[in-house]
Amino acid sequence: MFNTLHCGSKTIGTQCLWTIKITRRRNTTELSITPICIVRTSWLYHHSGNNFVTTMLKLMSLSHDQASIGSSENNPINIVNDQIGSPTMIDDLARFLWKLCSQKQWVPIYHWSDAGICTWYEFAQAIKQHGIAAGLLHQPIYLRPTTSKQYASRVTRPPFSALDSHLSQTIATQKTWQQQLTLCLNELAQSKNG
């Protein structure tokens, strides 16, 4: 059983929302129901800000004279390969939320992520491949798969955090995480060249 502060805080947050959903109107016995829903997402990224994609691009871009941090054959970038999830580009999440707001009725909980699953290592490999294709990265870049146990992290993450988004697909169509990553990196390349 996976038990972390994240799981506990997620449960408490959900319970708090359902508690405040039904509130008693002041000075009456009438109850008011506030329409709310929860949208869960995972592995958010964008071509700006601090996230896995921008961090990987920075690490992969470092020159070999910065070998203590950068990627070289003798000093690869270690990437966790035993955690599975669904990357989600922020732009597509925003489009989904916009469409969700226009719905007349909601179910209590929606899941939204880009379609498909991968490990962090597979995601990093795709960032490398699409980053090279977009002209953002240059070879050689060395990535090495590692386990969560071997990778020193302050945050404990679940081994499987992919989301079942079938209810959300009635509102918006998901693109694959590979399509979204390509779009994200192409937008970044255009912004750097433009």
Fold topology:
Elements: H1 5-21, E1 22-24, E2 31-33, E3 38-40, E4 44-45, H2 52-61, E5 77-80, E6 84-85, E7 88-89, H3 90-101, E8 109-111, E9 118-119, H4 120-133, E10 143-146, H5 177-193
Parallel strand pairs: 3-8, 4-7, 5-10
Antiparallel strand pairs: 1-2, 6-9
The CATH superfamily of the domain at 45-88 and 116-163 and 175-193 bears the name: UDP-galactose 4-epimerase, domain 1
Structure summary, number of beta strands:
10
Low-confidence stretches: 1-6
Strand content: 5-15%
Structure characterization notes:
- Keywords: NADP, Oxidoreductase.
- Its cofactor is Mg(2+).
- With 194 residues, this protein is of the alpha/beta class.
- The protein has a domain at 45-88 and 116-163 and 175-193: Alpha-Beta Complex (UDP-galactose 4-epimerase, domain 1).
- The protein is 36% helix and 14% strand.
- It has 5 helices and 10 strands, in the order αββββαβββαββαβα.
- It has helices spanning 5-21, 52-61, 90-101, 120-133, 177-193; strands at residues 22-24, 31-33, 38-40, 44-45, 77-80, 84-85, 88-89, 109-111, 118-119, 143-146.
- It has a two-stranded antiparallel ribbon.
- Helix 2 (52-61) crosses helix 4 and helix 4 packs across helix 5 (177-193).
- The chain is elongated.
- The termini are far apart.
- The relative contact order is 0.19.
- Residues 1-6 have low confidence and may be disordered.
In brief, what are we looking at here?
Catalyzes the reduction of dTDP-6-deoxy-L-lyxo-4-hexulose to yield dTDP-L-rhamnose. By secondary structure, the protein is of the alpha/beta class. It contains 5 helices and 10 strands; from the N terminus they run αββββαβββαββαβα.
